[in-house]
Amino acid sequence: MIKEQCLGFLNTPVLWTGEKFGIEQFVFPELNMNRFLPKPILKKLRLGHQMEHVFTQLLIRNSTYDLVLSNQPVKDEKRTIGEIDFILKNRETKKLIHVELTYKFYIIDPTISEPIHRLIGPNRRDMFFTKMEKIKDKQFALLHSESGIRTLSETGINHGEIEHQACFKAQLYTPFSNNTVDITPLNKECIYGYWLRFNEFEKNAFKPHKYYIPSKSEWVIEPHKKVRWSSHFETLMEVNLRNLNENAPMLWMKKSDTEFEKFFVVWW
């Protein structure tokens, strides 16, 4: 599945292009994917850490950047206060780029008035706006703190020569009853599916189809038919159990051997 994860990551659009919110979006370089055989990634890792491994495996196939360092802890004495995701060096210009990597799944809540505040995690435990502010105010700033400067100098890097960028990829899910919700100035190509509540999923329109509840490692990849599909009735019971535990599962729905949909069933 690691190859599918890598391709899913690569094909996921960035949440914005150019500079927005005071953050420059990283442009992934052209890659040579001939005979691409990725190394295994531990499934027990959090999805964010899996994506860091994916990013590294893809990046080493490019001809634009060298990887200078990755996942570098920053310590204040013995206490770890943060981590630098990646520092790349442009082979031609020798420019250093600090890249903070984020891969997120957000549902769009149209009841919130401001578009950039509408993006929230399926379990309502994180928000795009909060993550964006953290990147800008904490993760970028970390490199220019006393501890960050010391960490970089130990590897021969001058913090003043670094340009900050974010590789911020995301899958967005619109309300089932309203797929025209405005997300300006974000990228509409990030919309992958929809979200609904349990009482909507119970309705007759969903009964004829087959379902699969992917593991979080599979959330990145495109739905395919080579999984164990379950009936609507079987899936209802599993979704209900997860909702009772305040967990919003992603579902793949198979309408035919070539037609699939992705959506979240939220508990709130």
What does this structure look like?
By secondary structure, the chain is of the alpha/beta class. The chain has 2 domains: 2-172, no CATH class; 186-266. 24% of the residues lie in helices and 31% in strands. The protein contains 6 helices and 11 strands. It has helices at residues 2-11, 47-59, 128-142, 146-153, 198-201, 232-244, and strands at 19-20, 23-24, 65-76, 79-90, 96-108, 119-120, 162-175, 191-197, 210-212, 250-256, 259-266. Strands 3, 4, 5, 6, 7, 8, 9, 10 and 11 form a 9-stranded mixed beta sheet that branches. Helix 1 crosses helix 2 (47-59). The longest helix has 15 residues, at 128-142. It is globular. The two termini are 31 Å apart. 28% of the residues are buried. The model has no long low-confidence stretch (mean pLDDT 95).
